[in-house]
Specification:
single chain; alpha/beta; 8 strands; globular; Glyas_Bleomycin-R_OHBP_Dase; 2,3-Dihydroxybiphenyl 1,2-Dioxygenase, domain 1; 2 domains; four-stranded mixed β-sheet
């Protein structure tokens, strides 16, 4: 019945700042961008592999309830080929990254950083 995950939607507090973060820092290609005048809201569709990431803006969205254990989405996770290279790239772009950890089940390296609204984003090494 369900064949794959199609997209993930994120609501941001500052559209310009978040658009820059996801398109310039994370380098996700833009599929489509539109301003929805009736909602005074932007919607930006970004490509990440076979998945889409939708970035929405709304006037005065409520803040995330708590970090990171609020009910609902816990974090996004991006697969990377080399975690050390990705961390170096993020740090060169002034993004703070937590120390590397090892998944006790798979033995793979992973870590976390945050988007401009403190949404946790995980890096998970494929290798």
């Amino acid at each position: 019945m369900f064949t794959q995950l199609h997209h993930i939607a994120i609501i941001c507090s500052n559209y310009k700042r978040s658009k820059h973060f996801y398109t310039h820092v994370l380098q996700l290609p833009i599929i489509h961008e539109q301003y929805r005048a009736d909602k005074r809201s932007y919607k930006l569709d970004l490509q990440i592999g076979d998945l889409q990431l939708e970035l929405f803006s709304f006037e005065h969205p409520p803040k995330r309830q708590s970090y990171p254990e609020a009910c609902g989405l816990r974090h996004l996770a991006f697969a990377v080929d080399c975690i050390e290279e990705t961390i170096a790239y993020l740090q060169a772009n002034h993004i703070e990254v937590e120390p590397i950890r090892i998944d006790p089940i798979t033995g793979k390296k992973f870590t976390f950083f945050q988007d401009p609204d403190q949404l946790p984003i995980e890096l998970y090494e494929r290798g």
